[in-house]
Hints:
Blueprint: E1 4-15, E2 18-29, E3 33-37, H1 44-51, E4 59-64, E5 67-68, H2 73-77, E6 80-83, H3 95-103, H4 111-120, H5 134-146, E7 152-156, H6 164-180, E8 183-188, H7 191-197, E9 200-205, E10 208-214, H8 215-220, E11 224-230, H9 236-245, E12 247-253, E13 256-261, H10 265-272, E14 277-283, H11 287-295
Parallel strand pairs: 3-8, 3-9, 6-7, 7-8
Antiparallel strand pairs: 1-2, 1-4, 4-5, 9-10, 11-13, 11-14, 12-13
Helix pairs in contact: 4-5, 9-10
Amino acid sequence: xxxxxxxxxxxxxxxxxxxxxxxxxxxxxxxxxxxxxxxxxxxxxxxxxxxxxxxxxxxxxxxxxxxxxxxxxxxxxxxxxxxxxxxxxxxxxxxxxxxxxxxxxxxxxxxxxxxxxxxxxxxxxxxxxxxxxxxxxxxxxxxxxxxxxxxxxxxxxxxxxxxxxxxxxxxxxxxxxxxxxxxxxxxxxxxxxxxxxxxxxxxxxxxxxxxxxxxxxxxxxxxxxxxxxxxxxxxxxxxxxxxxxxxxxxxxxxxxxxxxxxxxxxxxxxxxxxxxxxxxxxxxxxxxxxxxxxxx
Length: 296
């Protein structure tokens, strides 16, 4: 039986009167790549900052490796690698000096791993931080976060600034770390990243957890993407009936319509049989369309 790495119970954070997150509860098991998904402002970064004890909760509990996130943060930090959405460094330092300084906080020799990661990411460690592009600063953050071979890797919108080839290299690194035994907690609003990497996914909306599911189940759910073209002049009545049966994201354009459907497919087809159909397509929706259904 896998060990629980992250355990969150009824976690809530308010910034004055403004909502951060409300009553969030979930756990992540050892060895998972776990996706934390939601649009900007949903509360993803707030949750991560709470886990890292960068901010403190209004109420609720959170633990990592069975240790309380808010009373045992220094002990937890030794085994966590973190890559924030935005990276800020001492601009006057050289990259290698910054990485050596970061490595000095761990009771191990991180230099061989730093060298290996810098080569994989094509990062010139002899340059000064303020001479680097945004993408290269992100590479510094990746090296810093992975240098000590952490048991848990926490990533907050990690691929901003990386070109597509470097994104692929980064994903390869994450898979290798996961195969080594690391657990990965991955926050993103880029759905293709989630689809590519994650075992399970939590969907966040307006500070609330609205779904928690295995990625395979989410993709295999009985959602269908329907496109039709009809010669029936007055088809709106039938389409409205389909909405009441479980259709979402309905888009009507003259004599055509498209929508996502989750419900009794036979009953939907019975309604459509009353129309003079010129064309009908039924296929699996892509992951982005499924998420848009949740967000709306």
